[in-house]
Amino acid sequence: MQEKESKKIIGLMSGTSCDSIDAGLCEVYPDLSVKLIQGINHPYPEHIRAKIFSAFRGDISIKELCQLNFAVGRCFADAANILIGEFGKPDLISSHGQTVYHYPYDEKLDNISLKSTLQIGESAVIAKETGCMTVSNYRENDIANNGQGAPLVCFADEKWFLNKYVDENGRYKNFAIQNIGGISNVTVVNSDTATFGFDTGCGNIMIDYCVQKLFNQKYDKNGEIAAEGNICESWLDCLLQDEYYFIDPPKTTGREYFSPKYIENILKTAPSEPKDIIATLTALTAKTISQAYERFLYPSVHIDTCVIGGGGAYNKTMMKFLRMYLPNRIELKTHEDFGISNNFKEVMAFALLGYCNYYGISSNLPSCTGADKRVVLGKISLP
Ligand SMILES: Nc1ncnc2c1ncn2[C@@H]1O[C@H](COP(=O)(O)OP(=O)(O)O)[C@@H](O)[C@H]1O
Ligand SMILES: [Mg+2]
């Protein structure tokens, strides 16, 4: 077996929020720990971002999608080149790309499975524009092996949290690693069962949409709008009845589900005060997380600590509601408390997946994705 060395890897990622291209230069070590050297949030040019949102809505032609794949690749390369300008070339680049559609459901046509996913941001363009080997398209091989292609970050969560931290009795702590991006997903890292994970439901996606619509702002900075509103309990109860929250894991969701149409529909029964809408949607994310734990975690796993990451970790009202809904015995932390950036955690995870691809290490966790077996993820583009 090839002797492993530390590698400098730039991770590139843009999530369902499409808030920015996150780029992080990382050092990945043979023990699969990752150190972030420098991270940047590189904004999409305005019209490209608007086109991506059109793609989410299914409002663009095949020609435009084809063009957008290459254009997003150029934007990702620009983000990487900012880091390269400062630090020089890494050993490789690992790009998650921009998901425009994720449909891991077993519909069939002519008895042929239609399970699929599409991340754009052409990696041949990234490789050419940066001069670096680029690994991309991580979800496909998991889906080809009958998985859902997500969540993939669970692999990193397991490496970084399993059997790493002890409580006062010297027992390894069990973690719910909770990401709150556009969508919210949890990884359960514990010494009792295999690591498992699933999407708990909406994260910031509906908050962002409504803050944009009602306050003409991109997002609810620090949860300030929600802090001034009141939770409308009857509307919250109604939103909590959505069938997604009751489905047994493994399960994933996305913009295809929490779509503009879905949000416009729930707004028909919303309270009249805009701040109350934002407060209630913030409570919804926190409450669906706590209910998911009650339904799917506590019956089989003792959880010591919940670790929040993603943009939601910066929403103070969201954190306050989480503290309110989670049992007191569970300590609430953010990734920063463990020396991992909230902002660049996913970028670090994809740097790790790039490292695994390079060394032929399988990096999907079938207990999280539902795949038949462990496989090496990612495809390589050379400059
Ligand atoms: N300071 C902040 N206060 C409140 N919300 C924030 C803050 N920073 C980021 N967010 C929220 O987090 C979202 C981005 O989170 P991120 O983890 O990047 O998600 P994704 O992976 O979907 O891109 C933003 O759209 C916004 O809703
Ligand atoms: Mg983001």
The CATH architecture term of the largest domain is: 2-Layer Sandwich
Ligands bound here?
adenosine-5'-diphosphate, magnesium ion
Work out the helix count: 13
Class of the largest domain, according to the CATH hierarchy? Alpha Beta
The number of domains: 2
Largest beta-sheet characterization: 7 strands, mixed
> Remind me, CATH topology of the largest domain?
Nucleotidyltransferase, domain 5
N- and C-termini, Cα separation: 26 Å
Work out the radius of gyration: 20 Å
> Portion of residues in helices?
25-40%
Q: What sequence of helices (H) and strands (E) makes up the elements? A: EEEHHEEEEHEHHEEEHHHHHEHEHHE
Q: Structural class, please?
A: alpha/beta
**CATH H-level name of the largest domain... which superfamily?**
ATPase, nucleotide binding domain
- Our estimate of the beta-strand percent is 15-25%
Q: Oligomeric form of this entry?
A: single chain
Per DSSP E runs of 2 or more residues, the count of β-strands stands at 14
| Overall geometry | globular
Features:
Nucleotidyltransferase, domain 5; binds adenosine-5'-diphosphate; 7-stranded mixed beta sheet; 13 helices; 2 domains; alpha/beta; 14 strands; binds magnesium ion; 383 residues; 5-stranded mixed beta sheet
In terms of topology, how is this protein built?
Blueprint: E1 7-14, E2 21-28, E3 34-42, H1 46-57, H2 62-87, E4 92-103, E5 108-109, E6 112-113, E7 116-120, H3 123-130, E8 134-136, H4 139-144, H5 154-161, E9 175-180, E10 183-189, E11 196-202, H6 205-215, H7 224-228, H8 233-239, H9 260-267, H10 274-296, E12 305-309, H11 316-325, E13 331-334, H12 345-358, H13 366-369, E14 379-381
Helix pairs in contact: 1-2, 2-3, 6-10, 8-10, 10-11
Bound molecules: adenosine-5'-diphosphate (ADP) and magnesium ion.
